[in-house]
UniProtKB/TrEMBL annotation, chains A, B, C, D:
Cofactor note: Binds 1 NAD(+) per subunit.
CDD domains per UniProt: SAHH (cd00401)
Alphabetical list of PROSITE patterns matching this protein: ADOHCYASE_1 (PS00738), ADOHCYASE_2 (PS00739)
Residue ranges constituting the S-adenosyl-L-homocysteine hydrolase NAD binding domain according to the UniProt record: 258-420
Keywords associated with the record: Cytoplasm, Hydrolase, NAD, One-carbon metabolism
Membrane-crossing residue ranges in chain numbering: none
The name this protein goes by in its record: Adenosylhomocysteinase
Positions annotated to bind substrate: 72, 161, 223, 253, 257
């Protein structure tokens, strides 16, 4: 498969191992990225502490990590932490829009390298990939050159976000076992067709590639709800090829990244995209999970009137107790200035509902995929016209005569219109990731095939590594108090089902 | 054991079954209580829905329920719901101060009864019991008269709050097996001595009483953290005599009662006790669990500056992310106007710390027992003087020359100085209680000895029964959406480890 | 006019000067009041600072102050501050329900007196006066016995709240000039008829009493919006008899008392009256002035969904910017659980609207008079039935079959159901009052007849006296900074039209 | 004076009247600007309503308006509104960094023009002017070509922000009267030297230019505190040349722009500059005026712990009542992650304080001039090194070994790092501006020389024009209610000293 590497932005990796030089990164870009990485390190105390604690022991020596996760400044700090612990790393983004090119460039070039002689980590990602380019890039992270015997060598660990890398191994293995890649069915998405093409090419050129790859992988650590969901399904169906650690459900991930991260980046994205005052506006938030809670909180904090919808009566009751009107979208649709989806479900906003919105209402998705809003339906709506106001901000002129503003083409606007979660929040998530990679690399026998969350004491450790930076002084239990509540004075402090 | 029943308040029960009439309730009190119960019913839609749904089928027919839970207006609605579903009920409070006498009187007298001919439910509780009276009352709930064969008859179910009733059965059984009740050890609390006396008397008069009682009990449903903690310990040690349902950890209990209940009743108690402006004051909240979260939220909502302490790094990080200063008590003790304990641990505030507080600082416990603050230490502090400002509000003049105001003698001030959690919150908790009692009475085979939480669909049901009253409109999943996220359109909607 | 002094509560004043002993206060009540006053002093740093600063100089020596203001614990601290500065004082409440009997008793008895030999200040007030009793009591504050020549002697200053005392002097003077008191007109309120009777009796017994009284008065300091409004009207019409200081519009009064006071006492009153959970409820607040702002803020702080109505587009825009839905009452009336009036206008809630509310909706007035809600209309509504749940809490069964709960009979519920504003807030208001009395007593020549607000440096002084108690550290301007912004480093710091 | 017009950005005006074409705007830029202006119009309902109401009558016919105000998208809507009402307009920015080049380009080119044949309004502004360029641009707005008699023609009205245009006229007139421009004194700022040079050149080329200009000007409408302050000083000193309307102190300006505008743009600027998580951080806000209130509110809404400093005891008490710690900067300086100045004073943060901050603490000014933080001191600090992270974001490496991040070089970061106040807020401010221009142009006789605020009914009108867009439904007074509170049912509704 031949990919036409785009001429710019120049933030693209080089793979020196194979002697194949793709377009190298730009030095100016790399220097800008280096500055940002340095500032981000200051905001990522968890990762920096791990470097300090584990760096001298090189516990990831021998690990070959294939990473598929938004290639941002924060991910750069993650990548360099994995390297500092001894791992070999290759990286792609898990989203076609989310790469920050200067971060990618800096990671590729390394601290003392140049674009011509990069000394960093191979990264295959740039902002604004096509789907073909995206899946080409995803394949590159599996190619760790040849071992000492000249045999092709894949990763020992996957670090995944959304499960695309994991899916490639599993589907590849499945199709290789079947000896054929099925044809796309009618109604299959364009993306799925691209994946099938990729695997079809692979089957032709190396009929055991993914099977071999899967056998070499010790395990995967997965970042998000969606990816975790896929893993539980694979395991339920007996198809999971290696153990998986569900990083998403560490408390220090799900309750921090999802809630506090979005509280930060939703208003940030709205501002960068539209500069529209949130104060006084009526905002509808679909879903009151952690992401919805963070969204509602941020918008109220900016003086918006927030209305929430929910399908789960418990979350609905929480929303009510937190002072929000809980309504069905259809019942209040004519009042809404800003519509935010935070559900992780599909078709939460239909084309009919898009057409019922006020003129120039803003539509923003912070849930997961772009099918949360029926973008496909909108794209095929007769008479609808799409005008680019600026990248990732489009006015859709509707047959009703009204327009709406759709952010990031219905994809995650906190990534597309803002810069994703801020470093501090990602530090908590990524510290979990590194600890999870360490678990799989060093204690594999404790993880037979299955899906695991990290033990609570590691979760608490992640939190602990982030307190000093915030000036938080922890109170310590006396031995008598610890005994009174039946815990070790060093923790863990809570029963497993504690909800925080 | 002879108890001198206090002459007033007259809110005391009668037990007609044994022909022994204790002091009967006062009709005026009962009428006042009846009004309040009627208003509370309006605020307890969950319980009223259960009456409507299950009343005609009498599913609790044959159940004899011994209840030990604060005898408030809300509990009256619970008791009458249990009765409406067919149960026979006897009740005591689980706290010497928390009884609302008018509620007790109304429950005893019943809707159409009189103090002379009460038609309600036997209740053994009044506001301001001594410890001796308290344990006398607790014993009464186990005495369901004689069966058709004249044999003494105990409860089939316990509905417990804090585990005192359950403890009596377990300790009684243990001592009966040993054939003796141990002497109190030096350092044993006064309360434990009272318990030992009660069991010693019992062993003498009926050496198999508690053993027999325990054998007749199908199970217990427990309301609070502390009680649940005891149950898990009993089960871990192989001593649990019957299955237990942990109502406390239903989401609709722990995340509502603990958080939203205290958000309501902490400021209420502060107001009724002291009328002190919370705005502008510096408040220190020990503990950022659900109770601490609700406390901090309420006080910030009143314009206080809130500082939080924590021992768990995860909760500490949550407090910081919610915008609170997280500090050690000792580091800021000279700045504090109001000190709130919300930990469930012991000795969280020491006598030294009490003495370091500002003049007329307010000390309030919403955690659990009165040992959360070192009240025993304060009482034995040479030179300390206690002045009653009004019931449950005491000024302690300290040797330092400063005073502090201690609410509810260090016990739960939301019960002692306010009226406990409001009806709506208790409706959620108590709907869980009724569902749990139904589970044990009707599906005992699904509950071998152990400690259980209610299945998630019942938790969601509890939430659902409270939405209409708040005008909440739930959104419904389409079948396709349900399939997309892999759930039944009717729920349950979340994985078990979901944290809300 | 003969008044039948009620037998209990016994918190009633004695007037020793005239040798006429009315029912004396109860010692137990007085002692309870004394405790509360001591605690209140701690919360009223402004008044205590004035005692310290001015007490030695006795600047109010020779002042005879007639006070008409809610006879609460806080007012007791005010009265004793005026005394400490040298004034002679007589007091009545300005509301038939707002007296706290223990405070009245303590003020009457004094620190070392007894009911038989009271040594305090004459107070004519008890909780639950009839209108006849109220106006009898108001008259008593004008009777300062005889001067050294035996001539009857009135006050030199009025301290008023709502303007009733001031009105009596002005109307008395007007009718004395006319030589007759007019008959009541049809439609005149009962209260107005009582006032006419009082003045008719007075005219008969002493035809120059109020004229003489008015001539002896140096000025009045007025506490509230309503009273201030009356004063501006009197002055506009050329009828004002003496200068008036508008204490209400000191920043440290209006922006603190109205906003932060009601933020405290509205939820307090709702709790004491109904114990209803505010969280999750839909609350409608009529009016978004300072009182409405404080109301909305408090209710949101408790997790209520708040909807606001406004007639002023500026305040309406503020409400929207603060995140509240701004609607007309009629448009959302079926959704409301709690209805709060905060306007100072009349007939803001009509009988039709009362009937359109949900079953057991709560109706609470924190605006001003009871005509804010059409209570008169409700009382004359055929088929409406009033049931007393407890004092100041009435269920009204309506012809619709639904009920509503009306608090404090439509009068100020923060006074009737709670204990009014807390001490700290009243300290700011009352420190303004004392400073205003000082201005009139000591610098009368600077106040020709007219209505004045206190100069800004005194307003700032009031604030300054309340900072230490809250641990507030003020930053000081350097001389250069002061010059840069063109102010004195000691203040005042703002232009007069600054809005805070 | 010759100015070297920068080659890019190309957003620069053309003046066709004089036949002198400066660098014309870029069409792509203009088209981008046109899109943004169209979206902004939707968010500026006040201005659009004025176009609709007044456009047909051309009430500004004959007005020549010299505007000196940040050349943003919102200002474009203002300019085009003034044009739509009949005025002739020339514009410069009032800040060297705040111009949005695409907005400038769009205004210059006009809706149907081209860069070669611009049909819009002359604008002299681009992002990143030098001080020499800035003052050159400011001069251009006074040059309205020649009248029908060929005499040079200046503006009839100034629309000013900060008072630079007004200052030029006043200083020019003063120096022309003196016949000489003084030499710069030692210690004079670079900017003041530039102004003196400008006026010296002017005096040489046309010794009556500014005198003539001042005589032709009917009045000025001024946008900000600083400018208003200068006007009151000029008037106090008898030097004011023409009447001024203080737009800043319209309620719908100062209480909206300052508070709600900064609430929006402070976190926006922090995000765009640094992407740093605000949640959990300790933020210090200097000043609790309207800007400080909005700042503190926004940061708390993002989960920061906010500490406030104040010099005014009233504002300090407000901050405490709103729940903020009020401290002196020096006392907590080691805890601060983000330092925000919101005072309008000078030297509020000294170089010593900058050096005492934590490593990588962020320093942001939203007050007024860059002397609020001692940037001059920092620039001359030996051993301090400035590293540009990106435009308007600089790391200063300090001799202490620590660094700080300074935003916008100490100037207004909401303009330099964000896009200023959002359109909706500016709509309120600018609607006041247009009404003020209308007052001066059409009712000059009502405005003898002096400084005025707009009458309250116009202030209320501004608010009213913004309600529909937010879905706010205003309640209307009945005639009886209006009479009861003594107002016209159509307003104004409040006394002049009402503080909102």
């Amino acid at each position: 498969m031949s990919i036409d590497i785009p001429a710019r932005p120049a933030a693209l990796s080089v793979d020196t191992r194979n002697g194949v030089a793709y377009r190298v990164a730009d030095l100016g870009l790399a220097e800008a990225g280096r500055h940002q990485i340095r500032l981000a390190e200051h905001e990522m105390p968890g990762l920096m502490s791990l470097r300090e604690e584990f760096g001298p022991h090189q516990p990831l020596k021998g690990a070959r990590i294939a990473g598929s996760l938004h290639m941002t400044v924060q991910t750069a700090v993650l990548i360099e932490t994995l390297r500092a612990l001894g791992a070999e790393v290759r990286w792609a983004s898990c989203n076609i829009f989310s790469t920050q090119d200067e971060a990618a460039a800096a990671v590729v070039v390394g601290t003392t390298g140049t674009p011509e002689r990069p000394e960093g980590t191979p990264v295959f990602a740039w902002k604004g990939e096509t789907l073909e380019e995206y899946w080409w890039a995803t394949q590159q992270i599996f190619d760790f050159g040849a071992d000492e015997n000249g045999a092709p060598q894949g990763p020992t660990l996957i670090l995944d976000d959304g499960g695309d890398a994991t899916m490639l191994v599993h589907k590849g293995t499945e199709f290789e076992a079947a000896g054929a890649v099925p044809d796309a069915a009618e109604g299959d998405s364009h993306e799925w067709r691209v994946v099938l093409d990729v695997l079809r090419d692979s089957l032709q050129s190396d009929p055991q590639r993914w099977t071999r790859m899967g056998q070499g992988i010790l395990g995967v650590t997965e970042e998000t709800t969606t990816g975790v969901h896929r893993l539980y399904e694979l395991h339920r169906d007996g198809k999971l090829l290696f153990p998986a650690i569900n990083v998403n459900d560490s408390v220090t991930k799900s309750k921090f990244d999802n809630k506090y991260g979005i509280r930060h980046s939703l208003p940030d994205g709205l501002n960068r995209a539209t500069d529209v005052l949130m104060g006084g506006k009526t905002v509808f938030v679909c879903g009151y999970g952690d992401v919805g809670k963070g969204s509602a909180d941020a918008l109220r904090g900016q003086g918006a009137r927030v209305i929430v919808s929910e399908i789960d009566p418990i979350n609905a009751l929480q929303a009510a107790m937190d002072g929000y009107q809980v309504a069905r979208l259809d019942d209040v649709i004519g009042d809404i200035d800003i519509l935010v989806t935070a559900t992780g479900n599909e078709n939460v906003v239909t084309v009919d509902q898009l057409q019922a919105l006020k003129h120039l209402a803003i539509v923003a998705n912070v849930g997961h995929f772009d099918n949360e809003i029926d973008m496909a339906g909108l794209e095929s709506l007769p008479g609808a016209e799409r005008i680019e106001i600026k990248p990732q901000v489009h006015e859709w002129r509707l047959p009703t005569g009204r327009s709406i503003l759709v952010l990031s083409e219905g994809r995650l606007m906190n990534l597309g219109n803002a810069t994703g979660h801020p470093s501090f929040v990602m530090s908590a998530s990524f510290t979990n990731q590194v600890l999870a990679q360490l678990e799989l690399h060093t204690k594999l026998d404790e993880y037979p095939i299955g899906v695991y969350v990290l033990p609570k004491f590691l979760d608490e450790k992640v939190a602990r590594l982030h307190l000093d930076a915030l000036g938080v002084k922890l109170t310590e239990l006396t031995p008598r108090q610890a005994q009174y509540i039946g815990v070790d004075p060093a923790g863990p402090f809570k029963v497993d089902h504690y909800r925080y």
